[in-house]
């Protein structure tokens, strides 16, 4: 089975760091749990990114289990996925759409 490379733009890294910082304030164990769920979602994307429907502007969305976040990504080549946001699902996506 073909596996895709995943690249995160710097803003997506910042999204993850912001989420980790938020959860760290609540409970120091929560960032570890978030990281685990993100890794699972990234592996699923890496394996079959086309399993996720295009939602808008060629952006696909993979929800992160347990946490109210979703990974927004595009397929840019036959073997590469670019993550453009790790976005809280209750926040208006217009906040980061300029990243496209």
Describe this structure in words.
With 100 residues, this protein is α+β, with helices and mostly antiparallel strands. It has one domain: YaeB-like fold, CATH 3.30.2310. 35% of the residues lie in helices and 30% in strands. It has two helices and five strands, in the order βααββββ. Strands 1-5-4-3-2 form a five-stranded mixed beta sheet. β3 and β4 form a beta hairpin. α1 packs antiparallel against α2. The protein is globular, with a radius of gyration of 13 Å.
Task: Draw up the topology in text.
Layout: E1 5-8, H1 10-26, H2 30-47, E2 54-56, E3 59-63, E4 69-77, E5 80-88
Parallel strand pairs: 1-5
Antiparallel strand pairs: 2-3, 3-4, 4-5
Short description:
The chain is built from two helices and five strands, in the order βααββββ. It has 100 residues and is an alpha+beta fold.
Largest sheet: 5 strands, mixed
* % residues in beta strands: 25-35%
Order of strands, main sheet, comes to: 1-5-4-3-2
- CATH architecture grouping: 2-Layer Sandwich
Quote the CATH topology: YaeB-like fold
Number of helices: 2
> What is the domain tally?
1
Overall geometric form: globular
Kindly provide the name of the CATH class.
Alpha Beta
CATH superfamily: RelE-like
Would you list the SSEs in sequence order as H and E?
EHHEEEE
Work out the radius of gyration. Answer: 13 Å
State the end-to-end distance.
Answer: 29 Å
Helix content: 25-40%
Structural class assignment: alpha+beta
What keyword list fits this structure?
about 100 residues, YaeB-like fold, 2 helices, about 35% helix
